[in-house]
Design a protein that fits this description.
- This protein is α+β, with helices and mostly antiparallel strands.
- Among the domains are: 54 residues, no CATH class; 44 residues, Carbohydrate-binding module superfamily 5/12 (Seminal Fluid Protein  PDC-109 (Domain B)), CATH 2.10.10.20; 161 residues, no CATH class.
- 36% of the residues lie in helices and 23% in strands.
- Strands 5, 6, 7, 8, 9, 10, 11, 12 and 13 form a nine-stranded mixed β-sheet that branches.
- It is rod-shaped.
- It starts with 28 loop residues before the first helix and ends in a 6-residue tail after the last strand.
Length: 385
């Protein structure tokens, strides 16, 4: 029922219809009260309660808001509260949807901006890394160029030193000598240590004596110790004489049997005879071991039969096997007095090698060396007993 239907326009039993003198009209007090209550508890109460129920109704189209009037809004023509709420809702919905879309787009924009900032930071980091790598590359390239220039300079120096080293001539007082040039003068050898021209090799400010004429020790002056008790000799000259004697003894046998095999390798030369005799020769470079010893292990160029190495002897020389001066004693060529009391010791040896040791009193330094010609005599096949 609509609110409009709740109006009380006419009372069913109006009080005005009662007698002005109810008691005279025969109404009792109870009847009078009932007449008054009929309006208050009946019509008025039912109308007010109906209005309350109508206002509380939520039935679509018959709700309380549908019954309450309101001046029409500018956005529509509804004149009830419910109608105006619907108009407001209809007009606000697009705004809400638009706002939701705006918020969603804004969130997307913020996320995109965060991604952009992150990508930019990554780009900046990568650029910094690239810059650092480029700086490192430039530094490495500069170092390489510097090292290459150093290498070129060193190579030029090496070539110059090599060219200077190749000069080995009789002294010429018109020649411009440079460091490393070697000359012969009055039977001695000298090496230049400061560029000069016209200054005699005896000038110690410009030249260094590397081999004094007549100072190479004779073989008879070089003592040996034969730990294998194969020689009676106590010096190189006597030992070589004993070897010569042994060879002469073997010569008839060699003549009978002839040479079975001969050859050479990096360790030296060897000759095998039919009767089982073998002679090995070679050159070894005795090298610094201590202030009082030069040593070298010589591996024979061919294998002797076990227990059949008869003798091993050597002869130190200031020249190498090519005949050129080639040694360092006391760190220089010329300090040969260190060898005045030297002893050449044939150390332990077996079928494959021999240990050769040259002992001096003292004075050797790191890098010292001297060449030694060496001979080993024995058998490549054992005696048949």
């Amino acid at each position: 029922m609509a609110l409009n239907d709740r109006k009380i326009t006419v009372y069913a039993n109006p009080v005005t219809s009662l007698s002005d003198h109810p008691s005279q009209a025969g109404m009792t007090a109870a009847q009078l009260k009932a007449a008054f209550d009929a309006n208050a508890t009946g019509e008025i109460k039912a109308s007010i309660n109906g209005i309350v129920n109508d206002l509380k109704s939520v039935t679509d189209g018959a709700s309380g808001a549908d019954e309450i009037g309101s001046t029409a809004l500018k956005i529509g023509g509804a004149i009830t509260v419910q109608g105006q709420l619907k108009e407001l809702q209809a007009s606000e919905t697009p705004k809400v949807e638009a706002e939701n879309i705006r918020i969603s787009n804004e969130n997307i924009r913020v996320l995109s901006e965060v991604t952009r900032v992150s990508n930019e930071n990554t780009r900046v980091s990568n650029e910094n890394t690239r810059g650092n790598s480029e700086t490192t590359r430039i530094m490495n390239e500069n170092t390489r160029i510097l090292n290459e220039n150093t290498r070129i300079g060193s190579e030029d120096t090496r070539i110059a030193n090599e060219n200077a080293r190749k000069v080995y001539e009789n002294y010429d007082n018109t020649h411009n000598y440079v460091i490393g040039n070697k000359v012969y003068y009055n039977g001695s050898s000298y090496i230049n240590k400061a560029p000069c021209v016209g200054l005699l090799p005896t000038d110690i400010t410009k030249w260094l004596l590397i081999s004094a004429g007549g100072n190479t020790p004779a073989a008879s002056a070089v003592p040996i110790v034969d730990v294998g008790s194969h020689f009676a000799a106590t010096n190189v000259e006597a030992a070589l004489a004993e070897v010569s004697t042994q060879i002469n003894v073997l010569a008839p046998l060699v003549g009978l049997g002839g040479v079975k095999e001969s050859g050479s390798n990096a360790n030296g030369y060897y000759v095998k005879y039919e009767d089982g005799t073998m002679i090995c020769t070679g050159w070894i470079k005795l090298e610094y071991a201590s202030v009082a010893k030069l040593t070298k292990t010589w591996t024979f160029p061919a294998l002797f039969a076990a227990g059949n190495v008869n003798s091993v002897i050597g002869n130190p020389s200031f020249k190498n096997k090519a005949g050129a001066d080639n040694y360092l004693i006391g760190g220089a060529q010329g300090a040969i007095t260190i060898l005045n009391s030297s002893i050449l010791l044939m150390g332990s040896f077996d079928a494959t090698l021999a240990n050769i040791e040259l002992y001096v009193a003292s004075g050797l330094v790191t890098g010292d060396f001297i060449w030694c010609s060496i001979v080993a005599i024995g058998r490549w096949k054992a005696w048949l007993i």
